Amino acid sequence: MEQCELSVIIPIYNGARFLKDTLDSVLAQTYTKYELILVDDGSTDATSSICEEYAKKDGRIKVLHQSNAGMSKARDAGYRMASSWTSIAFLDGDDIFAPDMFEAMMQYKDYDIVQVCSQNVNTNRISEYKMDDNPPQIEFMSGDRLLYRYFYADQNKGDIGYLWGLVINREYYMRMEPVIRRAEQALPQNYLNDVYCIPRFLLNTQRVVLLNKVYILHRISKYTDSRIIKPNALHYELALANKTNLDYYKKQKCHFAYDKQIVGFYLVILKIWYQTVTSETDLKKQKKYVRLVNKYYQEYYDELKKVHCNSVKEFIIKWTIMLFGFDKILWKLTVGNLRYGLMYKLQV
Questions:
Q1: pTM for the full model?
Q2: Which domains does the chain show, CATH number per domain?
Q3: CA-to-CA distance for 120 and 100, rounded, in angstroms?
Q4: Closest by Cα among 72, 76, 71 to 88
Q5: pLDDT tens, residue order, the chain (348 aa)
Q6: How many whole angstroms separate alpha carbon 159 and alpha carbon 217?
Q7: Closest by alpha carbon to 93, among 20, 192, 168?
Q8: CA 184, 187, 193: angle at the middle one, nearest 5?
Q9: Orientation angle between helical segments 255-279 and 283-299, nearest 10 degrees
Q10: How many CA atoms lie within 13 A of 25 on its CB side?
């Protein structure tokens, strides 16, 4: 049996609809020296049986069934099952991967982080998408430079800056664990370690490799948590996770990230406000989260006004955010209904 060099961890909650496609995509990898750890996070659909079915097919697959605890804790549980010497990769349970992805990434396993690009693809078009067969553009850089490329993406062949697009060296992961654990203490539900891990991973290393090519098709559908218009605990914690990142960038004096993050933070909290006032049926929760959004909106407003706009698009986004402060009803009827009402209804 081949020596395992990579632990691939997939947390899954009610992912039966697309899980087989994802697992087939992992098992089709040309690189074979990996173990695949599936964490069934208390699913109530056929996820559990699919995981067991695939574990019987391939001895590299390990399965853990646990009570629902959220994606972050499911990832942590998968990490604890991993072999102690391997590199670490976290994947989503509904994405599709180029067959040579692991092979390309593991060539640089001695670096702290290896990043590939992803592409958002609507679920009804994902089978039609053709990935580029050309070799990737290989770029060596510091973590803060990769973070800069996340915010200023014109040189990137696809999306970067997500936990599910990384291979992380085990020694580096272990060094960063205390930093990550301190950050997650601020998040009561701990759904979103993919949000708060990235800034901390990237601002603490000089040894990063970017394979500048799309290797991951990131599925977009109405079943994706972030695309569900009715608010849930994940949406509410997303605001806190983004606030945590905002404060971290300020503490680290990472000014370019702070300016970009503050706009992103406002877009997150305004989405939550719209979801809450249009779809939250629990009046106690509605009042609580409307108050929270109003508090966050005022807390950083003076900083928002100072943000410099480098394009017409950035100018429009900034002023749609500021419109909310002038007239919430007008914002809801225009920006809110267009961005979140109509567009989400059209989501497949």
A1: 0.90
A2: 6-225 (3.90.550.10), 228-345 (no CATH)
A3: 19
A4: 76
A5: 578 999 999 999 999 999 999 999 999 999 999 999 999 999 999 999 999 999 999 999 999 999 998 888 899 999 999 999 999 999 999 999 999 999 999 999 999 999 999 999 988 888 888 888 899 999 999 999 999 999 999 999 999 999 989 999 999 999 999 988 888 777 765 556 778 899 999 999 999 999 999 999 999 876 654 444 455 666 677 888 889 899 999 999 999 999 999 999 999 899 889 988 988 888 998 898 899 899 999 999 999 999 999 899 999 999 999 999 999 999 999 999 988 776 555 444
A6: 10
A7: 20
A8: 50
A9: 160
A10: 22
- The identity of residue 153, as a single letter, is A
Interatomic CA distance for residues 231 and 219, integer angstroms? 20
Residue 111 vs residues 168, 172, 262: alpha-carbon distances, Å: 8, 9, 30
- Conformation bin of residue 253: beta by default, left when phi > 0, alpha when psi is -120 to 50: left
Contacts of 215 (CB under 8 A, 6+ apart): 97, 98, 100, 101, 104, 116, 117, 118, 131, 136, 165
